[in-house]
Structure formats: C-alpha cells, structure tokens
Amino acid sequence: MEVQWRDHTLKVTGDWTLRWLYLAPQYELWLDDQKLDSRGGPRLKPLLEAIYEDEEGELHHIEAELVSVIGYRPYCEIKVEGEVIAADKVRVENFINPFLMLVIMASTVVMLYLGPEVIRDLLGI
C-alpha cells in the first residue's frame, strides 16, 4: 500500500519470512526509501509507528494500523498526526510460504507416525 504525503511516499509492505516459521507475516512502514518501523508475528492488530522530522524541523507522528487475521490482504490505515490519510488493503509477498511449511510439517508427522518399514513398503524399496 502506497500513498503520497507532502512530497513524500509512505508505504506499508508485508512479507512472510522464516523468522516466524512462515506462519506470521512481517510488516514494514517506509517513508521514501527509509524504513521507519517493522513489526510482525502472530498479532491480530500490529501497529507500526514513527516520529518524522521534516525539513522545517516539525515533528510528525506517523502510524499504520493493520488488521491481520491470517495475513492475507490485511486492512491498513495510515495516519499522520491522528488523521487518516489512506486506508486500503496491503499486498503481502510470498503468500505460498505458510502453506508449504504446513505441508512439510504434516508430511514429517505422517512419516514419523508410519515409520521407515511402512514407507519402504509403499515406495517398493
């Protein structure tokens, strides 16, 4: 999600990273090419916030509130000084990663449950 604000670009991104075994996304708040805040993990409402000092020396409180149930297209509001300047859904990168991790974990459990003899018989080894 991207929005223009006072000749700057505010952006919120999301990505499924290995840090949480791909089971929770990591969100980042960017101002132009500078990362202001990063938050992730199994949270329903992650809050990204930062204080930005502009060229005139004024301080601005920037925050992004997300509502992330399963991490797929979470709703986000970007606020500056408490005023909502944009509200939209965030596209989270690498959405297939949590499904791959769940398949790998389930396959490992099945293999451990069946044991090596049954797997050898099934594969014909």
TrEMBL record:
Keywords: Membrane, Transmembrane, Transmembrane helix. The chain crosses the membrane at residues 95-114. This is Uncharacterized protein. It comes from Lujinxingia litoralis.
